[in-house]
Design goal:
Order of helices and strands: HHHHHHHHH
Keywords: Membrane, Signal, Transmembrane, Transmembrane helix
Shape: globular
Largest sheet: none
Number of domains: 1
Organism: Lysobacter auxotrophicus
Number of helices: 9
Protein name: Tryptophan-rich sensory protein
Number of strands: 0
């Protein structure tokens, strides 16, 4: 399983490269541009995948290299599944199989969010886990926690499930769902900086994109994305303070 985790981690940048070269059809950016939504993020935001892939490969290498291992590591199969699903999402989305891509990204989110929560609760237990497991898995989970909802908006527009002319009501509902997931997960992890940082990065990119958009409701969505980013950052600060302050909560 450890070698499979490394192979799965390596498959993500490899498939991303092939996707950008058009091996499976239009690249993901071109496909996204065909279905404009009020939850689209500025293009620069997706550069975070480079960091995520690099850290995930480091995680796979760490799994192979480390000598001291628990007999049963519940995070390992879930992280491997999350990497495989992340890799699978790219060609499926490029080929226009949007419902399948939507199911895949939420499945990947479930796997990686489980890993982020598990490593947040036990990161003192294993040598090197803070850098090589908690950080990559939390960053990956944080980005997917937002990206899954952005992808949902594109699926809705691509299939015309809801109004494409009046997107604001259902876009705010999706943004609210993303916010609820992010804040509940962050609370469960008692403040996870990597998780929050990835989500805030994406939310600010939504603000940047929608601030310059001419779509009806774009300014409202931009403001809500910025408010959510601020609320998530404030929640993280509060959770860390109550965790570290003497006599409040549980000491770190």
């Amino acid at each position: 399983m450890r070698y499979l985790a490394l192979l799965a981690a390596l498959s993500m940048p490899a498939i991303a490269f092939l996707t950008m070269r058009g091996a499976f059809g239009p690249d993901t950016g071109d496909v996204s541009d065909r279905y404009p939504t009020l939850l689209a993020a500025a293009g620069y935001a997706f550069s975070i995948w480079g960091l995520i892939f690099l850290l995930d490969v480091a995680y796979g290498g760490w799994q192979v290299a480390r000598r001291s291992r628990p007999r049963r590591d519940p995070v390992l199969p879930m992280s491997t599944a999350g990497f495989v699903l992340t890799a699978a999402w790219m060609p499926v989305f490029s080929m226009g199989w949007f419902v399948a891509a939507w199911a895949i990204i939420f499945a990947a989110l479930g796997c990686l969010l489980y890993c982020a929560i598990a490593t947040s609760q036990s990161r003192r237990a294993w040598p090197g886990q803070m850098v090589f497991a908690w950080l990559p898995l939390s960053l990956h989970a944080g980005w997917l926690s937002l990206a899954a909802f952005l992808n949902t908006a594109q699926v809705i527009v691509a299939h015309g499930w809801l109004s494409t002319a009046v997107q604001l009501p259902w876009s705010l509902a999706l943004l609210g769902g993303a916010g609820a997931l992010l804040m509940l997960a962050n609370m469960a992890m008692r403040g996870n900086l990597a998780y929050v940082a990835a989500a805030v990065w994406g939310l600010v990119a939504v603000y940047v994109k929608q601030s310059a958009s001419t779509m009806d409701g774009a300014n409202v969505t931009a403001t809500c994305a910025l408010v959510l980013a601020s609320a998530l950052a404030a929640q993280y600060a509060w959770l860390r303070w109550t965790r570290d302050a003497p006599g409040i909560g549980e000491t770190a």
